[in-house]
């Protein structure tokens, strides 16, 4: 790093915060390796969408009208989309905030909470942005002991210290694909100190069976310091447009609004999400396809004696004797991109997103010879 720049107060500390490492872009892999076909199973996107109705709505914004077009600023707070979300989730519109992806809301809440410093409690093996958002906002991370197969609410509660401002919970958690039961969620919601914001990240919630899933939004009236996050990047298949939302009390939303950039979500994203949030049939279809992919993958993994972790989300963790970084490279050479998990403290696990059947076939065709008869 440029030595003059690292003299700027704070930059040196910034350079010690881990960087988020995104999945490799398909076109770059294709160019580097001279491959004709790439199968990307690395970023937990939904391969089945977006729907034609969503694309038609985006096209109408591009065509432009008196009220919307690419040359005009979008609705600053995304009122019309927030209204649709509020209807779907059964809350009032002032209890919905939008973000440029739910990652931006993770940054917003950290920015608000760590204005005077403090700490966050994060279960081990959680989504990297929780720690990055905390630290870039000036907070300190306390990691709990959770294992790859278990999230321990009592350990989360025990880890809280005097200056804790935020607790994060992936529900289900990425990359482990596990979630806590209703009773544990209730304990966390009710026993966590009132001056701590509980952030329940439900990015993959729509992949769960709606009849069984303990939705943290059920506790919004009970706990003013609760933020429940959803994204349009996963089951809604709009990762490229960057849009997500948070639900909370109107007091909490008013604080988040103070750290939200004006016009933080764009026209195309707002319009696409307005259509998508109402399309329960597409969600049910995607959930079913995901369940089928998981079942087929489990059978194939058993044939290869591969150990899997996680039953939630649109992905799975697979343990391998070969270091994850090596397996990742070998698969990449064969045109399949997965996510190695060494950065998440899991050096012998890769995370595989469930794609279409032909993509999963391509994964096993590439993986079988490398695994040489077994994980
Ligand atoms: C648990 C979790 N939360 C949030 C996100 C971020 O999603 P977005 O695209 O809305 O920023 C992801 C993306 O992978 C995720 O896995």
Topology overview:
Layout: H1 3-6, H2 11-15, H3 26-33, E1 39-40, H4 52-63, H5 79-89, E2 96-99, H6 102-113, E3 119-123, H7 128-136, E4 140-144, H8 153-159, E5 164-170, H9 182-191, E6 197-201, E7 226-231, E8 244-247, H10 250-259, H11 267-276, H12 280-303, E9 307-309, E10 315-319, H13 324-333, E11 336-337, E12 339-340, E13 349-353, H14 357-371
Parallel strand pairs: 1-11, 3-4, 3-5, 5-6, 6-7
Antiparallel strand pairs: 2-8, 7-8, 9-10, 10-13, 12-13
Helix pairs in contact: 4-11, 5-11, 6-7, 6-10, 8-9
The structure holds pyridoxal-5'-phosphate.
What is the CATH topology assignment of the largest domain? Aspartate Aminotransferase, domain 2
Largest sheet: 7 strands, mixed
Number of helices: 14
Rg over C-alpha atoms, rounded to the nearest angstrom? 21 Å
Kindly report the name of the CATH homologous superfamily of the largest domain.
Type I PLP-dependent aspartate aminotransferase-like (Major domain)
Poorly predicted runs of 5 or more residues: none
- How far apart, in Å, are the first and last alpha carbons? 40 Å
Strand content: 5-15%
Structure report:
- This protein has 375 residues and is of the alpha/beta class.
- The chain folds into 2 domains: 8-37 and 281-371, Aspartate Aminotransferase, domain 1 (Alpha-Beta Complex); 52-279, Aspartate Aminotransferase, domain 2, CATH 3.40.640.10.
- It has 14 helices and 13 strands.
- A 7-stranded mixed beta sheet has the order 2-8-7-6-5-3-4, with helices on both faces. Strands 9-10-13-12 form a 4-stranded antiparallel beta sheet. It has a two-stranded parallel sheet with strand order 1-11.
- α7 (128-136) links the parallel β3 (119-123) and β4.
- α5 (79-89) packs parallel to α11 (267-276), α6 (102-113) runs parallel beside α7 and α8 packs parallel to α9 (182-191).
- The chain is globular and about 55 Å long.
- It starts with a helix and ends with a helix.
- 43% of the residues are buried.
- Bound molecules: pyridoxal-5'-phosphate.
- Pyridoxal-5'-phosphate is lined by residues 44, 101-103, 127, 170, 174, 201, 203, 231, 233, 239, 244.
């Amino acid at each position: 790093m440029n030595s003059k720049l690292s003299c700027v107060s704070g930059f040196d500390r910034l350079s010690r915060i881990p960087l988020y490492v995104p999945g490799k872009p398909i076109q770059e892999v294709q160019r580097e390796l001279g491959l004709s076909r790439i199968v990307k199973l690395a970023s937990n996107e939904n391969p089945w969408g977006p729907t034609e109705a969503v694309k038609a709505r985006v096209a109408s914004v591009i065509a432009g009208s008196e009220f919307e077009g690419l040359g005009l600023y979008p609705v600053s707070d995304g009122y019309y989309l927030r209204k649709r979300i509020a209807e779907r989730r059964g809350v009032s519109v002032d209890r919905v905030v939008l973000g440029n992806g739910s990652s931006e809301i993770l940054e917003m809440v950290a920015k608000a909470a760590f204005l005077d410093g403090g700490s966050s409690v994060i279960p081990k093996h959680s989504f990297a942005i929780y720690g990055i958002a905390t630290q870039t906002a000036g907070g300190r991370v306390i990691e709990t002991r959770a294992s790859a197969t278990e999230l321990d609410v009592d350990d989360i509660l025990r880890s809280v210290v005097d200056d804790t401002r935020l607790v994060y919970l992936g529900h289900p958690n990425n990359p482990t694909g596990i979630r806590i039961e209703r009773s544990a969620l209730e304990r966390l919601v009710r026993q966590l100190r009132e001056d701590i914001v509980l952030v329940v990240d439900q990015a993959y919630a729509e992949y769960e069976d709606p009849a069984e899933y303990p939705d943290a939004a059920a506790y919004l009236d009970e706990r003013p310091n609760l933020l429940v996050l959803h994204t349009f990047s996963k089951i809604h298949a709009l990762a490229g447009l960057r849009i997500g939302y948070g639900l909370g009390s109107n007091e909490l939303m008013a604080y988040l609004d103070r750290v939200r950039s004006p016009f933080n979500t764009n026209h195309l994203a707002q319009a696409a999400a307005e259509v998508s949030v109402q399309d329960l049939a597409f969600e049910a279809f995607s959930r079913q396809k995901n369940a089928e992919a998981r079942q087929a993958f489990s059978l194939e993994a058993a044939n290869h004696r591969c150990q899997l972790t996680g039953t939630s989300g649109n992905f799975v963790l697979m343990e391998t004797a070969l270091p994850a970084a090596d397996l990742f490279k070998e698969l990449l050479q064969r045109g399949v991109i997965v996510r190695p998990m060494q950065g998440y403290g899991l050096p012998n696990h890769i995370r595989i997103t469930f794609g279409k059947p032909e993509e999963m076939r391509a994964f096993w065709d590439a993986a079988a010879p490398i695994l040489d008869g077994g994980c």
